[in-house]
Every structure is written in C-alpha cells, then in structure tokens.
Amino acid sequence: MPVEIEVVNDPDEIRNIVPVVRSAWGMNNIEQLVKDIVAAMRFHGGLVLLAKEGKEVIGMHFSFPGRRKGRTYLYSHMTGVISGRKYGGVGEQLKTKQREWALENGYDLIAWTYDPLMSLNANFNIHKLGSIARSYEENFYGQMEDALNFGIPTDRFVAEWWLSKEREKPQPPLKHLDATASGPMPDLDALPQVISVAIPEDYVAIKKSDHDRALAIRLRSRLIFKELFSRRYFVVDYDRQSTSYIFSRSSGLHQKYGKNIFSDT
To answer: By residue range, what is the domain housing residue 10?
Structure first.
C-alpha cells in the first residue's frame, strides 16, 4: 500500500506524532522532547526566559517566530510562574523583558492565544498589557483529556500586542451583553459602536461545580464573540469591576491595525 503524506490541521491529529517520536528515537521521556523542541525554537530565532530568585527558578517564558499572510511576528507560546508565586508581578516582568527583546530583534508585533473566559488572563492581556483581540479560534488545542476540561472545547482569542502603537482609550460602552446568561441569545442587530460583554468571574470554579453550565457558557460566548468579530468589532479593553470586555468598531481601529492576519476570511 502506498504511503500518503498529509498536512495536519486538526489539533487532535497532532497527538499521533507522539508514538512515532517514541518509536523512531526511542524517546519515552516527554520532558526530553519538550526541552529539545524549545532548544530548537530558541536557536532558530526564538526567545527563552527564566525568572530566578536566588538559585530558584520561579517563572519561565518561551516564544518563537511566526509568519502569516506575509507578516512576521513573535508568537508567545507560554509564560508561567510557579504555584505560590503567581499574581506577584513576575509574569509582568517576564512580558516586559519579552517586549524589550522583541523590539531589539526587529519585531513590532507579539501574538498569543488565551481562553477568553479566564478573567484574570483577560485583565492581564488586554487591560494591563494593552493588547487587542479580533480573532476567535474554535477548539484551538483540540480535546482535553482531564476530567475538568473534557468535553469543553479549547476555544481561544488571539491577542495582538502591537509594540509601537499607543493603546486605544475606549469610550464608555453604550450596550451591555452577558455571555454567562441562560435563555435566548441577545439581539446582535443594530448594536452601538462600543459595547461590553460580561464573562464569568471564575470560569474554573464553574467547570468544577457545574460542567454542563460551563459548556453552555462556552458555546454561548463563542456565538457572541464570533458574531461581533465578524461585524468588525475589536476587543480594546477589559473592565475587571464588571468582568466585561469592551468591544469597539471604530473605523480608526481598522486604519491603525490594518489587515487581520489571524483571520482565515
């Protein structure tokens, strides 16, 4: 039977490389595989950072070059801080160092994906750092196998951190939508230029206590976010007090940020 070579687009298909890696290289230690991949990314233009306190490593970051529709950018794959040291400013220090390195190496855009229903990430990525979002990726990482996430699609926003552009100062929202509500979908016709959309304050707690509700919120928010992006809205800020994204479709946004390289349309 002839061998066929196919390009993989389904994230769940990617897991099929693991048994081949184990067989071809005799590599049963996945930690070794991760280390080797990150080392290769660093050599070929990527960035690896460690946050240290004395001799203890308390945080890490790695990113690598990306290219879509003719534009090169730095793709920020992972930034993390050890348990017990989160929310103390280490993550922000890592991102600041990443920004400095990116500018020194000719990048004007850093991009990454994150779960739009995680309120702390929304506040950090959008409000603190000043990134924008205008792209929604369904089930980006494929099916998760753990009990907490099983059956809940791994949908993601694409955050765009433009390093040489001043952040937008949004106008007060003129209409409020709730992505956490049950019942009929809100009317998305004739919306004003600036609106807000509420997300859960603690989506992880909802997944732990009520899996069906967590899935319903994921699917409802997906419909709302995708529809707003299709109508050329941008996420320009996040309001922690109301746990809400601020969306705007000012014509100036499209002039400022140009073509959306992360959209397939």
So the answer is: 1-36
Whether residue 15 lies inside any domain: the answer is yes
pTM for this one?
A: 0.92
Contacts of 103 (CB under 8 A, 6+ apart): 163, 164
Q: What is the DSSP string of 215-264?
A: HHHHHHHHHHHHHHHHTT-EEEEEETTTTEEEEE--HHHHHHH-S-TT--
In three-state secondary structure terms, 103 is helix
The H or E element that residue 17 is part of is helix 17-25
CB 177, CB 195: distance < 8 Å: yes
136-151 residue pLDDT tens:
999 999 988 777 788 8
In 3D, which of 73, 80, 84 has the Cα closest to residue 46? 73
Question: What is the Cα 181 distance to its own chain's centre?
Answer: 23
Q: Which tokens go with 58?
A: 């308390």
Position 217 in a domain: no
Tens-place pLDDT, residues 24-71:
888 888 788 889 899 999 999 999 999 999 999 999 999 999 999 999
Q: Which residue has the tokens 């002839």?
A: 2
Q: Which two tokens stand for residue 26?
A: 């005799």
CA distance 228 to 86: 32
The Cα–Cα gap between 117 and 157 comes to 9
Residue 20 lies in a domain: yes
Partner residues linked to 78 by β-bridges: 62
E strand or H helix that includes residue 112:
strand 109-114
